Structure formats: structure tokens, C-alpha cells
Amino acid sequence: MTDGANFRDSKQQKDNFESYCGYHQTWTGEPINELTQTGPGTPCGDYLRRYWHPVYITTELGSKPQLIKILGEELVLFRDKSGRYGLVHKRCPHRRASLEYGTCENQGIRCCYHGWLFDVDGTVLEIPGEPEGSASAANVQANVRLGAYPVKEYKGLLFAYLGPIDELPEFPVYDTFDIEGMVMTPYAGPFNCNWLQVLDAIVDPVHTAFLHQSQFSDGFGELGEIEFYENKKQRFFGSASRRVGDNIWVRVNELVLPNFTQAGSAFATDGTQQRYFGRSAFTRWVVPVDDEHCIAYAWGNFGDRGDPLEYNTPEGMQLIEQGELFDRSYAEKQASPGDVEAVEGMGAISDHEKEYLVSGDRGIAMYRNQLKKHIRNLQKGKPPPQPGILAGANNGSVIPTYGSDTVLNIPGADEQRDLLKSTNKQVMDILFAADALSGDARDQSIITQLRALE
Amino acid sequence: MSDQWIDACGVGEVDEEDLIRFDHGEKTFCIYHTAKGFFATDGYCTHAEEHLEYGIVEDTVIECPLHQGRFDIPTGKALGGPVCIDLKTYPVKIENDRVFINLSDDTV
């Protein structure tokens, strides 16, 4: 036997459980520091730095350098006059002036203070104040480099890799980057809180039914049967199977570690009309700015297989991201809270120690613990897997994804929960079985098999 | 004592300081690979019946993914709140790089 029996009977436990026990409850609790701290040199920071992340929207970068903060690092993003992108440490390695006041040159960025010119990879190109060929200038060339990171422009988003350059991974390409007829519009959704509490929501199908029930459609409010899945320790899914009249609606949310998220549509699907492998409203990453702020960078996806084109506006994309507009009065936020209110209300960094998870939070427990394992393995010298491991041999290097809606005409009674579960399983089995295919062939195979379930 | 040794998995399928889920018929188990060797327990935490498969292994302790209840893997002993009921353990043997678990009713 163990001491466990005493745990429940202890005076402290009793005091914390009686009515009006507010006096006995502690106010503070620790966050899961292992997952919330992402600055330079932190274990989670090291782990996140092994991946490409979106850091800016291409069209918003002008001819001037742009100060940004990513993973706790103050950096300057710029486009030089030959069109190359640079992402460099903010402070000049000469006298520590900020390069946000510099100028973009034909090659690289020039510091405002003494005119030192740096290439996009951090090489010192010019030291105007020192005699050419002097020992001093030679010393600079031999010893000084501006901290810099590689940048990749892709379909309107600028991605960067902030990790060790000798471990530079391939840029992961997901199937949703190239769906015929899909209009992809970049957006940025800023949150005034830690990245983890924003990321949690994607594997939390229960919140979709309660928080968002009035924001998207009535069908969203139906909880349905929920299942969680995991794939190669790199991907997590939550699927929710709900009845809407004579239809069964299976919605799949997806998280590829560390921070890539997709779901079903926001507005295109309400369960009243059949839909076969409709794709995600967003193709999205949750990127830490620092430990108390993050940004969801994404493409909104519009078209027959995405959300209606009428939502392809700045306001439409705010609604897709969090169910409500971002900038609202307090009264409006209380009347209809969205994701921002739910996650920012936890505090800048949630005191996770005081959480009490239940079975509906299984997706969250699964992915948080897998993150911890990858982080600890990296500390022991074992690099984490890249999203590319999810691409099958036949896919080339394109990663098949699952975030989707399927609405099937399968009449039945509300009480037939087993029918919801079995339909859920059939839909997921069809999605998984198509992994060997790619592109349009995969989509068509899935769609054909889904139709056959009716 | 009767022996009912079931082939659960290959030794290479479980990373060191990690575990995998093993289902057999109606029952479910966890197979652990620790610095002290391989072990097996029931799959569900005795607290809220969540599967331990996504739990964290540290040395020879398994921490439940949902409420972080901790058990000693070799003995199944519950190590402190919120878990207070011990986890059932099963003998394990390694043969030809395979992990076998003994599900005989006589084992405790």
C-alpha cells in the first residue's frame, strides 16, 4: 500500500475542497516552463529553432528595414535592392547601433552609424571608416560577422530558420500549398499571450462546440463524438463527428509539430449540405514573438474547397482566425468571446500547474508530452523529426494533410452515438489509406470513397 | 505457475526512456524501455483511466499525461498524488530482440 490514501484524507485536501474554500486555494502556479520558454538557449527555444517558421507577410515589408521579434530575438528583416531578403540580429557588431535605422543597399544592409555594410548572410562587406587594406580592417573581416538567418519567400509569407546552419532542414511543403482553385491570402493574427495556450486550441475539439457555437454555425455547437490520433510522433489529430439532421459531419483538426495547424472550414460548412474532403480555412503556424506574445501566421484558403471568397478580406480573416474581430470593446468581448478572450484571459503565461485536465483534453495532453520528449531528446543530442517524415515515398516530398470537413447523408437518430463513432472511423480510415497517393489523385480517391459511404 | 508469454514488440520499437502501447485482445498495456531494462504494466492510469502511452518516462518513473500522477515502473507503485492505487505489472523477458510479456493469471 502507499501513502496515497492519506493524500485524499489530509486536512489540506479537505480544506481545499469544502464550499467557499477560496481562502485555502493558492493563487499562483508554475507554467510548464519547459514548453513556454522559447528564448535563445532555452530547451524549447532550441527545439523550435530546428524548424522553418513564417515571420512576416511579404507585401508588408517595404523598402526600409523592419524590426521584428521572433522567439525572443530582436531582429531586423529587410529586402535589399537586388531583391534578396535578410534577417539579421538587430544590433550592429561594431558599436551596437540598431540596424532598423539602416539602409537597404544593392547588396545587403548598411548601418546608419558608421556605414558598415553587411551582406544577407552577415558577412561584413564594407568598413568605410577604416583604411582599406589596414590591419584593423583585416581584423574585422577575420573576426566579425553579423548574426544572420536564411529567409525564404513563399506565396506571400516570409519564412526563416533560426537554428544552427549546419542542421538546415528542407523547407516542408504541404499538399495544401497547392490545391487547384484555392485562393491563398496571407494574414497575421497577433495574441498577447504565450504560444502554447494558442496552440492548445487546435487539438481541443470540445472548445469548438462551446466557444464558437454562435460564431460559425449552429452545427458547430453540437459536441459530437471525439477521437484523437497520433502519427509518427510528429502529428496529432482531433476529429469530431456530429449529427446535423440527416447528415453526419466529420471535422478533422490537425497539428504537425511543432506549430503547424489546420482544421476544417470556418464558414463553408454547417452540416446541412454534403461535403467531401473540404479543406482547411487556414494553413497556419503559431509563432512565438516572446514568452508573452505570439502571432498566428497563415494563409486563409478560399474557393470551393475552402471558405467562401466573400471572406477573403482583412475582417473575414480575423473571423476565420478566432471567430470574432480582434479589435472590439470590452462589452462586445464579454457578449461574444472568441479565441483571443479565451486564451489571453488565462494571463500572459498560463499557470498550467493549476489546470485540471479531463478526458476531452486528451489531445492536449498527448501533444504537450510529445513536445517534451522531442525537447529532451534534443538536449541529449538527438535532433527532432522534421515534418518531411510524414511524406510517403510516393509523394515526393509533399506532405499529405488531413484538416478537413466531410458531411455525409447518413440518416439516423440523435441517440445513435455508435453510428457517429463508426462513421468517424470509416472517414479517418479512408483518409489514412490514401497516404500512398498524392495531389489530385489522392483527393479524388478520398472523395470517391467518401461518397461511397452514403 | 502457468506461463503465457505474448510477443509484444521488437526491442527497437521502444526508444530508451520511453514507452509504447501494446493491445492484446480486450486488454491494453504499456511496454517501457528504461535504463534498468524493459518492463510492462497495465495501460490505464489508476486515477482517471487515461492511457499512459503519452506519458513521460524519467529514469524508472512513468508520469501520467493528464494529471502527472507518477508510478514506479518496475513495481507499479503509486508514488504520490493524485494517484493512490498501484499499477499492475507483468513479467517481461527478452528473446531474439523481441519483448515478451507474461499475461498468466498467476502473476501478480
Give a quick summary of the entry.
The complex is a heterodimer of chains A (about 450) and B (about 110). By secondary structure, chain A is an alpha+beta fold.
Tags for this entry?
heterodimer; A: 454 residues; alpha+beta; Rieske Iron-sulfur Protein; Naphthalene 1,2-dioxygenase Alpha Subunit, Chain A, domain 1; 2 domains; 4-stranded antiparallel β-sheet; 24% helix; globular; disordered N terminus; B: 108 residues; mainly beta; 3-stranded antiparallel β-sheet; 10 strands
Characterise the protein shown here.
Chain A is α+β, with helices and mostly antiparallel strands and 454 residues long. Chain A is globular. In chain A, the strands form five sheets. In chain A, strands 13, 14, 15, 16, 17, 18, 19, 20 and 22 form a nine-stranded antiparallel beta sheet that branches. Chain A has helices at residues 4-9, 11-15, 33-36, 43-48, 135-143, 195-199, 205-210, 314-322, 330-335, 339-344, 362-379, 417-433, 439-451; strands at residues 52-57, 66-70, 73-79, 85-89, 103-104, 109-110, 117-118, 124-126, 148-149, 151-154, 157-161, 173-174, 183-191, 225-231, 235-244, 247-256, 260-262, 275-279, 282-290, 293-302, 398-399, 404-409. With 108 residues, chain B is mainly β. Classes of the chains: A alpha+beta (454), B mainly beta (108). Chains A and B meet through α1 and α11 of A and loops of B.
